């Protein structure tokens, strides 16, 4: 049991744990995060659009009804701002849709909208003091917040961090980054999944198929390392770790995780997956 706990926490430092904990270092399953605020903003947008429709249709709810609903459900943010800031995880907000430098050339914006390497390097540099270990530690922390604390704010942050790493293709092609980020990440992920009940994958982790899709992206990026690396050492290191994860994935959850080559072949056969070239 002790060794399993070490595997789940070996990158977490006291400083990193305190940095994301609520002000009083106590949380519950209801503790919020920056992602809850995002959901509120999306809901407000939906309500606003529905309100516009209601005044021009036969919808039984009128504009006044929506106004009251808005005020009751969402405008309370200002009243509870102090309470929310106290009982709120201090996660670094990960915006996967803004994964490029806004001043970049169009071709770089297109590239880094898919390849998250620019965002990964930026976050490690600015939010994690240049240390990949701090990033890995937060991946571990957010997972434990879900696993032990039953708090889904931890799940949302964990999902974004996992995809951020899986989709950073360019960074993966460098030996230093592979040894400090990607190989440890695959090991961390395997240790985390080992603690999940067999039905946990189907009940929680497959929402939107995010984990399966993230791991497919990771597999493809590892496969593509062969085209960028100067030697086979890097590819062999990454593919060996991925092979172990793939075997565990299938034995534990009964899901077959295709290899990167299989994913690429499947995409070639599916015309809908063919890349679209846009001239600007």
UniProtKB/TrEMBL annotation:
One Pfam entry name: AAR2
InterPro entries on file: AAR2, AAR2_C, AAR2_C_sf
Residues annotated as domain AAR2 C-terminal: 91-257
Protein name stated in the entry: Protein AAR2-like protein
Listed GO biological process terms: spliceosomal tri-snRNP complex assembly
